[in-house]
Amino acid sequence: MLNYKHLHYFRTVAKAGSLARAAEKLHLTPQTLSGQISGFEARLGVALFRRSGRRLELTDAGRTALTYADEIFGIGAELEEALQTGPTARAHPFRVGIADVVPKTIAYQLLAPALTLAEPVKLVCREDRLAQLAAELSIHRLDMVLADRPLPSNMDIKGYSHPLGECGIAFLAARTVAASMHADFPASLAGAPLLIPGEDSALRVPLLRWLERKGVQPTIVGEFDDSALMSAFGQAGAGVFPVPLTTAKAVRRQYDVVEVGRTLEIRERFFAISVERRLSHPAVVAVSEAARLSLQPQDAD
User: Fold this and answer.
1) How large is the C-alpha radius of gyration of the chain?
2) What are the record keywords, sorted (predicted)?
3) Torsion of CA 146, 149, 153, 156, to 10 degrees
4) Is the pTM of this model over 0.85?
5) Could you read off the pLDDT of 186-245 as tens digits, one per residue?
6) Domain with CATH 1.10.10.10 in the chain
7) Domain with CATH 3.40.190.290 in the chain
8) 4-84 CATH choice from 3.40.50.2000, 1.10.10.10, 2.40.37.10, 1.10.245.10
9) Which of 183, 171, 157, 166 has its CA nearest to residue 296?
10) Spatial distance between the Cα atoms of 32 and 6, rounded to a whole number of angstroms
11) CA distance 21 to 12
């Protein structure tokens, strides 16, 4: 049987990043704590940590163990609260993986309806690369993955990709950058500083091909896996940046930027990936139905 005291020690070390800091929190000596962790690893038959200089880094097995540990102690805290405050309607966890290339505004727009269901839902979001999230989905660690592409066929993972919708692209920029560009879009992008999505984004290749077809050569000054980081650089005046047309209004308001042009020739698509061929999870169904309304074909913002 799992030793939960050892699991608690492991979790504390994983959060602290070093034996010394964890030992101080647990009121143990580093030597004692090191022995406890070694015994726990021996009991499990796997290494949970590797050394990186003075820090301890989690191995793949360690990251998996930490995910379970967080849930175990989270449920324990819920149990304690329920016993202290009396019976209440327990929110069922809805675990969603969000591919790191999916814009945060899109993720919120699609997931918000799940929080309005009659049966309470506790939304648990994890952000990572699609390959890692798909692996967790396959072992039912996630209920759904939001991505900008279908599940790649070369992944040895059983899953089904459900199209949520698509929209065109708006190009936004800080006011100072927009003021330096002429009004003839997309020719106005020629020579302009441009921020583009990273290699994991499904938008990257269509965007570059569209620029090539238009005969426009901007100056690419940055590539970003995280759309929020790209927007922050755009807000600071680093360059023009693309966003899904359906979220352009919200991004303009949030980052105080302006639109310099838009196109329907580039389509950004979004998918809900699940282990179900037919959607049945109430929260996943709510997300799918909401997407039909929020990702409108006319791309109005």
Assistant:
1) 23
2) Activator, DNA-binding, Transcription, Transcription regulation
3) -30
4) no
5) 999 999 999 999 998 999 999 999 999 999 999 999 999 888 899 999 999 999 999 999
6) 4-84
7) 95-301
8) 1.10.10.10
9) 166
10) 12
11) 9
DSSP secondary structure of 71-132: HHHHHHHHHHHHHHH---PPPEEEEEEEETTS-HHHHHHHHGGGGGSSS-EEEEEEEE-HHH
What secondary structure does DSSP assign to 128-175, as a single string?
A: E-HHHHHHHHHTTS-SEEEESSPPPTTS----EEEEEEEEEEEEEE-H
Give the CATH class of 95-301: alpha beta
- Encode 91-100: b = buried (16+ Cβ within 10 Å), e = exposed: eeebbbbbbb
DSSP secondary structure string for all residues of 233-273: HHHTTS-BEEEEGGGHHHHHHHHT-EEEEEEEEEEEEEEEE
User: CA 222 from chain center: how many Å?
Assistant: 20
